[in-house]
Amino acid sequence: MQIPTFSNIQEAYQIIQPEVHQTPVLTNQQLDERTRGHIYLKCENFQKVGAFKIRGATYAISQLSDEEARQGVATHSSGNHAQAVALAAKKRGIPAYIVMPKNAPQVKVNAVKDYGANITFCESTQDARESTLRDVVDETGASFIHPYNNPHIITGQGTAALELLEQQPHLDMVLAPIGGGGLMSGTAITTSGLSREIAIVGSEPEVANDAFLSFQTGTLHPVQSTDTVADGLRTSLSELTFACIQKHVDEIVTVTEQQIIDAMRFIWERMKIIIEPSSAVPIAAALHHIDCTDKRIGIIISGGNIDLKHLPWQS
């Protein structure tokens, strides 16, 4: 698989623009004071399905031929990607087959059902997800839409940074969270395509630091622990996303669990917007690990989907 180019992302944006929201960029005086910089939050928590994932899913599904589309699309996911694929498939009028673990949050299961997708439940292991998906694809002939190891997905995700840099063109740095690396890859390709002067920094939880280790050693490391509150960042990089990050990212920093929770709560309380723990990771990085003094920094807020019955600061 080839690494997408900046021109690919520009072309993708023209295709998906009618189907996605142009999300706002928000600022906060207290956040600026605490970081001693100028922070611009690209709020993909206000995006359709509550996360940036709809961008990649919409573009990937748009690239299917009519013959492929008639067979539908399939994926495995317990979260935002499942909802994004389900909605994008509904918009194109084709079937969606989603494999979800039995312990997936009911609110997310309900959302996938509401978008009209066919759900197959499996055990909550990666092997079970993949084997069940293979069975579904064999039975239906559907096209597998991988959540991040897919050039079209990366290309679509990069449109969030494209919007950010159109809304705030004079940035010194762009920050994004890293899970499987789709958003980080697309963000990095876009940012480096627009300017060689903007620093590109990734962020991830200290306890799930596979991207940090991979970046430092030059060798792909699988994630060793998923024991992080940032549930959207529990996946490992793929060969494709690692290649994108190696080529375009300048630095990766890690943050503690308490720093993630504190950053999330700070944004909820001071900005009155709901962000999920994964979105708080780059904010924690700006608050604790990056010199933001007098710098203009754009941060991709990846999503706002969270179980309100289980907030991380509640005992």
Give the structure's gist in a few sentences.
Keywords: Magnesium, Pyridoxal phosphate. The protein is 46% helix and 15% strand. It is of the alpha/beta class.
Number of strands: 10
- Cα-atom radius of gyration: 18 Å
Tally of DSSP helical segments: 13
CATH architecture annotation name of the largest domain = 3-Layer(aba) Sandwich
Distance from first to last alpha carbon: 45 Å
- What's the number of domains? 2
Q: Which regions have little confidence, pLDDT < 50, spanning 5+ residues?
A: none
Describe the structure.
- This protein has 315 residues and is an alpha/beta fold.
- It has two domains: 6-51 and 151-301, 3-Layer(aba) Sandwich (Rossmann fold), CATH 3.40.50.1100; 72-141, Rossmann fold (3-Layer(aba) Sandwich), CATH 3.40.50.1100.
- 46% of the residues lie in helices and 15% in strands.
- It contains 13 helices and ten strands.
- The protein has helices at residues 6-16, 29-35, 53-62, 66-70, 80-92, 106-114, 126-140, 151-167, 182-194, 210-217, 239-248, 257-271, 277-288, and strands at residues 25-26, 38-43, 73-76, 96-101, 118-122, 143-144, 173-177, 199-205, 251-255, 296-301.
- The chain has a six-stranded mixed beta sheet with strand order 1-2-10-7-8-9, with helices on both faces.
- β7, α9 and β8 (199-205) form a beta-alpha-beta unit.
- Residues 17-303 form the Tryptophan synthase beta chain-like PALP domain.
- This is Pyridoxal-phosphate dependent enzyme.
